[in-house]
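G., the chain you wanted modeled:
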Amino acid sequence: MNPTVIAVALALASAVAYATAAVAQERLAAVGHPGRMPRLLLRGAWWGA
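Predicted structure as tokens:
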């Protein structure tokens, strides 16, 4: 395979993974209560996202 094609595929996969994690964190933050962000950071699910 052409190195350029591989680079583009990896960049696309990285962008999709980043967007998926951002959506997951946004949904996780929406479940919590306002003003409880420090407590949210202690949850493993936050860091897993």
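The chain has a mean pLDDT of 81.

Shout if anything looks off.
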